[in-house]
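SEQUENCE-TO-STRUCTURE ENTRY
===========================
What this section holds: a protein sequence and its matching fold, both as plain text.
Question of interest: how does this chain fold, as expressed in backbone structure tokens?
***
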Amino acid sequence: MSKADCHAGGGVLHRAFSLFIFNGRDELLLQQRSAHKRLWPNYWSNSCCSHPRSGESMTTAIHRRLMEELGLRCSLEFLFKFKYQAQYDAQGAEHELCSVFFGRTATPVHANREEIADWQWIALPDLQRQLNDEADCFTPWFKLEWGQIRRDHLEDILSPGGMRAWVYR
């Protein structure tokens, strides 16, 4: 099915992915979705998210889209997979089986302005304050994913002996 058909009405379950990119200061790269997006325009979200194309492997898709949206190349590590549905309006919804990955980069961001209205590196305490005070500014999948990352993976991602030691590749 086309992306438009998958997101029509209540949505049709389909594969998707979300990427969380950190820098050397343990800041997370957030993007503000373009005003032209059909679902959740101008909302803040994770570093990059999209869908694999028909016949495309997840590995190929995540690296392709990271370059298309942010002009970045980096190694990406799988964290978890989850299913969710979120209704935007009567016209569309997300209904996705989403694979979540993280990576680290020291490369400058070159955002695709057709896809991204704005972007920022954010310190994790500042992100948590914004999520507590302005949760309606963030996409529903980001809030779900970030909650699970904080609960189950963040300590490993940031610890010197864990994923934090992961070399920039």
Observations:
- The two ends are 34 Å apart (CA to CA).
- The beta strands are 14-22, 28-33, 44-45, 48-50, 76-89, 92-104, 116-122.
- The chain has five helices and seven strands.
- Confidence is low (pLDDT under 50) at residues 164-169.
